[in-house]
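Bug #77: duplicate submission created two jobs. Keeping one. Sequence:
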Amino acid sequence: MKADTRSFYEAAVERTVAHITNALDEALDLAALARAAALSPFHFHRVFRGMVGETPLEMHRRLRLERAAKQLLESRAAVTTIAFDAGYETHEAFTRSFHQAYGTSPSAFREGSADSGPGCARPRQFQLTARSGVHFGEPTKTTPSFEGESTMDITIETMPSLRVAAVHHIGPYQRISEAFQRLGAAVGPSGLLELPKPMMLAIYYDDPETTPAEQLQSDAGITVPEGLPLPDGLVERQLPAGRYAKTTHVGPYTHLADSWSRFMGEWLPKSGHRVGDGSSFEVYRNTPENAAPSELRTDLYLPIA
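Kept job's structure:
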């Protein structure tokens, strides 16, 4: 079962890598790639990034830059022409990206190729470091190198349904704190925080790779008993009962995305499980008000089919 499931995810990722490497001049349709992998865009993005080490868009941009660098070394095409071929609208934007990746300007990179004479130990390199081992100009290398064994502590739990009183947030996920501030203002006077074992949590609905930041949707919420009236301004959400994989992130909230990436990209493909219906969510076991950033504990829940 585990081998079959890992093969399922590896095959989906390999098909995507093959599509990217063979269609560099096409704009990526990430929603279509996710459908082909039988995953939601949200989960597909995390699985791909966790297994390969970069998102599909990052791989696409890197391979275009590698192709551009190879063209600089092997042709006399104008830098502006190469920039347009790499998908950049201006020479300046291409130069900024190229310098960030290669540490020099495109023109200086091209001029340096003259130093790669017969006496050099190796030709000038245009490939950029990539954990996957996938590079432009190597058509036989379309199978990425996957991450090694995960050391994450994962448990499978059967969760009851959760009724959540929430503030809906539309906008960048890193600004969900604004929704939590509104949540606190609403539940403080209501006494909901005094109920036995309320859980503060966040529910995320959209893939930040495919959805503009200003359109991302999420909820900041607190669990409440059934039948209890909700304070004004809050909406009711239901997280369904079922089996969830859980891991605990210890540390600053700014590193949560990396934990999700490992969870989805390293553990999930090896686990023998597949993503189930429902939403992934985070439960905050403490807060910056009572714990240092390095001691913050956040449980990550993934629905399992």
